[in-house]
Each structure stands twice: as structure tokens, then as C-alpha cells.
Amino acid sequence: MEGQLTAELGHFALLLALMIAAVQAVVPLIGAQRDVAPWIAVARPAAFGQFLMVAVAFAALMRAFLISDFSVSAVYQSSHSQMFWLYKLTGTWGNHEGSLLLWILILSGFGAAVAAFGTNLPPALQARVLAVQAMIGVGFLSFIVFTSNPLARVIPVPPEGLGLNPLLQDPGLAFHPPFLYLGYVGFSMAFSFAVAALIEGRVDPAWARWVRPWTLAAWCFLTIGITGGSWWSYYELGWGGFWFWDPVENASFMPWLAGTALLHSAIVVERRDTLKSWTVLLAILTFSLSLLGTFIVRSGVLTSVHAFATDPARGMFILGFLIVVIGGSLTLYALRAPALKSGGLFAPISREGALVLNNLLLATACASVLLGTLYPLLLDALTGDKVTVGPPFFDATFGPLMVPLLAAVTVGPMLPWKRADLMGAAQRLRFVFIAAVLVGFVTWIFTTGMSWPAAVGIVLSVWLVVGSLVPLAERVKLFSVPFTESLQRAAGMPRSVWGMVMAHAGLGFVLLGITVLLTWQTELGTVLKPGQSASLNGYTFTFEGAGNVRGPNYTAVRGVFSVTRDGRPVTTLAPETRSYVGSAMTTTEASIRPVWFGDLYAAIGESDGAGGFAARFYFKPFVQWIWLGAMVMVAGGFVSLSDRRHRVGAPARRGAPAGGKIRTEASAAE
Predict the structure, then answer these.
(1) How far apart are CA 213 and CA 120, in angstroms?
(2) How far is CA 481 from the centre of its chain?
(3) How far apart are CA 308 and CA 108, in angstroms?
(4) How far apart are CA 568 and CA 476, in angstroms?
(5) Confidence (pTM)
(6) One domain for residues 371 and 495
(7) Residue environment code for 153-191, b if the CB has 16+ CB neighbours within 10 A, otherwise e
(8) What is the DSSP string of 151-213?
(9) Cβ atoms of residues 476 and 493 within 8 Å
(10) Are residues 331 and 193 both part of a single domain?
(11) Which of 360-369, 417-426, 620-629 is the least confident region?
């Protein structure tokens, strides 16, 4: 009875959240337009109230999962009484309804954060931002209340649940969706700021300073989410890969590319008061791509381990919402963007020019991924023809765009604002270029199986990592002044500079890991009986046998392989194939052991019926550098986010009235 009351309380809280969101979407917006202070003041308490109500609903659903209340449909569909408590907890967002509720919780949470920490914003702008954020909330809350109620009942109450998708019963994937959603939904703040600026009729350096922290935080979370999904794919699916250009992988990658462009474009607006219209458009497109990913996952247009829903009615609702949000914001942009006057001029060869090149290449790369992702879906919808756009297409289109982009990453920070001397920057980077080419040449000479794309990848990796340190060395005057003075200069350097260096170096580590892995990884598929061995890359894998093991809600076949090198023991690998209670699906649990310069990877398959088992072995050089580099990038993002300028916020607009249109310029000097 208590559990039932909790679920009904959560349902009631959702209805209240919808009503509060509707008020928040309308009243502050009208108040800001008419300069009515009491109406403007509604925005902040409404944002707090909406978040509180959604949090109550989410807590009610989480409790239903923890106590295995199978009277709640979502719990019945995605849980089982024998599941480990962690997967009961994460089962809250391991289904369509619960994942949408998590999305809305994060959405309202970002709105509440702006209400709490955006006290330096002009009241009218804050009211407009929170109103736009609430409009998005109204759409998603309506969707969840009327088509995907996470607290809907099952009558009669089933004695047992169907269980969570076995692929989701893993610690890595348990925490992957929350970080992914923090990234997806975090970009809604950039969208809300952009639409609010269009309504207000003004974009200036102060606006860019307010937008950047929210965009940077969303970018960091999305990077963590994508990295976690890649790591999970590597060790869970048994195929040994880290990225397959799956449509749902692409759905998360596209807003990451657009968000990266937005981060760099906002710097130009903040520092030089130009690229305003383009930056606003990027903010709209970045969140639009996040919504597109939601449609792809939940509309039923594709079948994937990531997809949650296959109900066409839900898909049409999301498609309609997508059209309203994207179409409405782009229409507003078309009407108001021409009035956004750019400020400072700059030469093509300048810091601004380098950032424009960065944006053009990122936007083109994002468009190529979008084309490859949507083309099969559109062709199927229009003609019924089935085509597959896989890695060869993306490698041929996305890869070449990355070469000039990665080459420019190191050059850009060396260029001054407004006008620069390219030869001067090249002169300062000559030793980096020589070192990169030398490393590539030496690698070519002393290794086998190296192709020219691999050589380019090695050179670019060194170029990125070493080149990212040059601006740092110049700022601290390394080797030009006493070392103690260099240390003092480093300690006083803005954290945003440290963050930039870390992010660019981390990108170099990622590229190095991908290049080495794709060039020199080795694999072997075979069938072994107990006592038989197989050799790969100097390692000998001896099959010791396989046996049945039992987990909390699964049974598994576990194989044991002893690994030696030159007769000396190295490690023991114990991969599994698992069968879960209530599911016909089996999962592969690879066994991975890091060794010098790579990973030993083993996966076991089915028995051949004669005492042998299918087995697959890999040696994956430098694979961990991919995720290490991504985490260095994330760390760089958070270091930049901790910069005092972001904590204190943008300077207030001088002469700004409480409401209405603001015409005076802002002080955004650094």
C-alpha cells in the first residue's frame, strides 16, 4: 500500500510539474516583454518548483524499482526481483519511460541551476532564458504524461518482472546514460540563451561569457558519456572494437561536433564581438541535433541495443515536437538574425580566422555524419529500399576533414587576434614540426605494416601533443627566465589556458591510440579443446577448460586461458558468455588484461559439441590511450570551467534596464 501511494504521489508531482512549466513558459516571457517586474520574478521560483516536482516523481520511480513494485509497468518491464541492487537502481533509466523522466529531471535541473547561479544575469534576459527552457520542459512533460507515463499501473499485479535488458546489466552502461543526458540536455541551455537573445534582439560579449560555462559543462559531460559508451562496447560486446558508426553512436557524436564548434565560436564573440549570428545558429543546431538523437532512439525507426521504444505513436509525437522546436527556432533566427550586427573586423590569417576554419571543418564533418546516418532511414521511408552506410563511408568522408582540422589546432593558439603573420607562427612551431616528422619517419623505419595514413596519424599525434605545449612554454618564458620565475608564471596563468593545453594534448593522445590500434592490432579466431594452445603476437593462450558458474540472476559458461610469453607466465584470462533469467539473450563478457603497450583480449563463444569452444584473441596496442586521452580532454574542460572568469561570471551590462529590449553595449574585457 505504501509503495502504491508513493507511485501515485510521483504521478501527481508530474502533473504539477507540467502546470508549473506552463506558467514558467508564459508569464516571465510576457513580463520581460512588457517590463513587468512581478511577472519577471515568477521565473526563478517556478524553475525551482518544476525541478522539485520532477525530482519527487523520479524518486518515486526509483523507489518502485528498488522495492520491486511490479504494479508499476516500467518496473515490471525492466526489472526482476533477483537482480543486483545496482541494476535495480539503474533500471530506473534503463527503459523508455524512465530514461525520459531522467531527461526531464536534468532539463529542469539546468533551469534551476540558472535560477540559482545566474544572479548576475539581467532579470529580463534570465526570465526569457528560463521561459524558453520551460517551453522545452512543457513538450517533454506532455509527452511523458500523455504517452509514456513512467508510473502507469499494471492490473493485475504480476508476481515477477521481465528483467532488464542483459546488455544494460553492466556497471559501465549503468552510468553511461546519465552522463550522456547531462551532455544532451546541457546544450539546451545554449539553445535557451540563443532564443532568448533573438527575442531580446541582442548578442554581445557578455552574452557569450554567460553561455560558455553552460556549453563547456555540457561538452564535458557528453564527452564522458561517449567515452563510457565506447569503453562498454569494447569490453562487453566481445567484438573488440570501440566505435562502429552505429546510428545511435552518431546521434551522440553529432551534437558533440557541433558543441565543439560552438565553444570555439563563442570565444570569438566574447573576445572580438563578431560571429554573433553564426554562434546563435550553432547554439540552435547543437541542441536540435540532441533532439534528433532522441527521435532516432525512441521513434522505432531503427533497431539497436540503444533503442528504447518502437511505438509509432510516440515517434510521431517526438517528430512533431522536433518540428516545432527546430522549425520555430530557425524561423525566429531567420527573422531576427539580420539585425545582429558584428563588431570587430579581422584578417583571414588571424586567431579569429583559425577559429572560423575550425568551425567550417567541424560543421562539414558533422554534416557528413548526419548524411550518412539519415540517408538509409530516409531512403527506407520513401522507397522501402534497405541500404547500409557503414564505416567505409565515414572513414572516407570524415577522416580527410580531420587532417586539416587537427593541423590547424596547433597553429590557431599561436596566432594573435585581428591580424597575424602565418610565417611567424610557423617559425615558432618549426621544432614541433621537425619532431613530429622525425617520430613518424623513425616509426616507419622500425616497424612493419605501417601505411601512409598511419604515418600521417603518428605525425599529427605528435604535432598535437607537443604543439599544445608551445603556447604554455611561451607564456611562462621557459628557458628565457630563471626556472623559479617560470614556475611563478605558470602558477598565475589563467586556468582556461591550462584547460586548452590539456584538451588539445588529450586529442593528440586519442589520435595516437586510434592510429596505433588500427595499424598494428592482431587477432585470431579458433576452436580450442582443453590443453590446446594458440599463439598471437608472441603470446601463447592455453585453454584450461570451461565450466558453468552462477550469478545473481544469470548462468554463465566461463573459459579459462593461461597466457605465457617465451615460456613465462603472464596472466590468466577468464571470459564468459552469460544467459539471464527471463531473457533469451546471451551476452559476452570479454576478459582483458593490460600488458606493456597494449591489451590482451579474450572472448569465448559456443561449444562445438565435441569438447571444443570457439575463442577469439586480440592484442590491442595503445588502445587504452583512446580513453585516457578523452579523459584528459574532459579534465581540461573542467579545469577551464574552474577559471575565475566563469565562477564570477560576466560583467553586468552597463545601463541595462530591468526589462524590455536592451541597447547599450557591455564590457567584456578580459
Answers:
(1) 14
(2) 41
(3) 22
(4) 48
(5) 0.91
(6) no
(7) ebeeeeeebbbbbbbbbbeebbbbbbbbbbbbbbbbbbb
(8) T-B-SSPPSS-----GGG-SHHHHHHHHHHHHHHHHHHHHHHHHHHHHHHT---HHHHHHHHH
(9) yes
(10) yes
(11) 417-426
**DSSP letter assigned to residue 457:** H
Which is it for strands 554-565 and 568-573: parallel, antiparallel or unpaired?
Answer: antiparallel
Are 195 and 319 in a shared domain?
yes
Q: Report the C-alpha gap between 28 and 450 in whole angstroms.
A: 61
Direct distance between the N- and C-terminal alpha carbons of the chain, in angstroms, rounded to an integer: 60
195 in the same domain as 165: no
Comparing C-alpha atoms, which of 605, 600, 557 is closest to residue 578? 557
Q: Report residue 602 as a C-alpha cell.
A: 579474450
| Model pLDDT for residues 489-498, shown as the tens digit of each residue | 888 888 889 9
Q: Based on the fold, state whether residues 434 and 474 are members of the same structural domain.
A: yes
β-pair partners for 603: 616
What is the rounded CA–CA span in Å between residue 447 and residue 445? Answer: 6
How far is CA 609 from its chain centroid? 44
650 occurs within a structural domain: no
Identify whether 489 is part of a domain: yes
User: What long-range pairs does 284-287 form, CB within 8 A, spacing at least 24?
Assistant: 284/191, 284/194, 284/195, 284/326, 284/329, 284/330, 284/333, 285/258, 286/187, 286/190, 286/191, 286/255, 286/258, 286/259, 286/262, 287/187, 287/188, 287/190, 287/191, 287/255
| pLDDT tens digit sequence for 96-148 | 889 899 999 999 999 999 999 988 889 999 999 999 999 999 999 999 998 88
Residue-by-residue DSSP string for 532-598: -EEEETTEEEEEEEEEEEE-SSEEEEEEEEEEEETTEEEEEE--EEEEETT---EEEE-EEEEETTE
Cell of residue 201, nine digits: 534582439
**The total number of structural domains that make up the chain:** 4
Residue 641 lies inside a defined structural domain of this protein = no
* Cell representation of residue 329: 527556432
- Residue 663 CB coordination number (10 Å): 11
Q: Does residue 289 lie within any of the structural domains?
A: yes
Between CA 457 and CA 441 the distance in angstroms is 12
In a 13 Å sphere around the CA of 373, the CA atoms on its Cβ side amount to 25
Residues 130, 97 within the same domain:
yes
Query: Residue 156: is the preceding peptide bond cis (ω within 30°)?
Result: yes
Last residue of a domain, one of 169, 193, 213: 169
Whole-angstrom distance, CA of residue 302 vs CA of residue 325: 23
Percent of the chain whose predicted confidence (pLDDT) is above 90: 57
Same domain, 112 and 29: yes
CB atoms within 10 A of CB 348: 12
Given 169, 197, 216, which residue is the final one in a domain? 169
Give me the residues paired with residue 535 across strands.
540
Residue 305 has a pLDDT of 43
DSSP run (H or E) holding 69: none
Compute and round to an integer the Cα radius of gyration of the chain.
27
Residue 507's closest CA among 442, 363, 366, 410? 410
Separation CA 319–CA 139 (nearest Å): 12
In the Cβ-directed half-sphere of 145, how many Cα atoms lie within 13 Å?
A: 19
d(CA 55, CA 43): 18
pLDDT value, residue 299: 57
| Cell numbers representing residue 38 in the block | 512581478
287 lies in which domain range? 185-336+352-412
Residues 285 and 433 in one domain: no
Please, how many CA atoms are within 13 Å of residue 277, restricted to the half-sphere of its CB? 13
| Whether the predicted pLDDT of 660 surpasses 70 | no
Q: Average pLDDT in the 530-553 region? A: 92
Q: Output the CA–CA distances (angstroms, integers) from residue 384 to 315, 378, 379, in the order listed.
A: 18, 9, 7
Amino acid residing at 209: R
